Amino acid sequence: MCFKASMIIIHRPYRAVQEDVLLRHLNFNDLEFRETTTMENCIYPGDKSISIGYYNENIIICEDYLLTSYLEVTDDPAGLAGYEEALSLIFPGSEILTVACHASVNYHLYSLVKNGEKLRFKRVIASSPILEYGDRLAEEEVIYADSRVIEGKRLFDSRWKEDNHNHAITEDQLMEDFAFGVAQRHLGVKISSGEENALMAGTPFKKFVKTSPMPLKPSATLRSWWRFW
Prior knowledge:
Elements: E1 4-11, H1 19-25, E2 31-38, H2 39-42, E3 50-55, E4 58-62, H3 69-73, H4 82-90, E5 95-102, E6 107-114, E7 117-124, E8 131-133, H5 138-144, E9 147-150, E10 153-156, E11 169-170, H6 175-187, H7 197-200, E12 204-210
Antiparallel strand pairs: 1-4, 1-5, 2-12, 3-4, 3-12, 5-6, 6-7, 7-8, 9-10, 10-11
């Protein structure tokens, strides 16, 4: 399965925050509720919408790369994105986990923040050097255990049973393994594993879209002067 996905997971928030208040803290002041949807439909909506759901003691924000795009281009892996700073202030003590991936370019990233401190960051794009910061997470170590460095290049065991070539897969090709493996840290299930139906299809998400502009009122048309006579 090929994925495009972008989400922010707030783990065990100590207080409840209304969705409209949360959106304002993230500088989305022009959004309105559109409908209730599922994660299956909002993990990559392609319409610049924001969807918020609750699962396994988490707040999940699917934001169509509107926020995570900063981390796609940053050269400072230890620095916090603006939304990471905002969420750290709203939810002290909670881990703020960002996960994003894009299959067409073998791209994935994840960023873990707690109390305003960056704990882990990794960004992998097929055409670029890996950018990372912090110690590997336990969820990563499981994947790295099936790898080795050969002639300066890290290669992984093939995930395909019919592939007889061991250690033929590069890190960028394991996009789903890394992105959704790290997300499992808080979600409790791994997306694309076949065990995520309750999360993807059975959990309601509130979808917010840009407020529709008010239609202009037609201006009153004055009768031409010659029609008054």
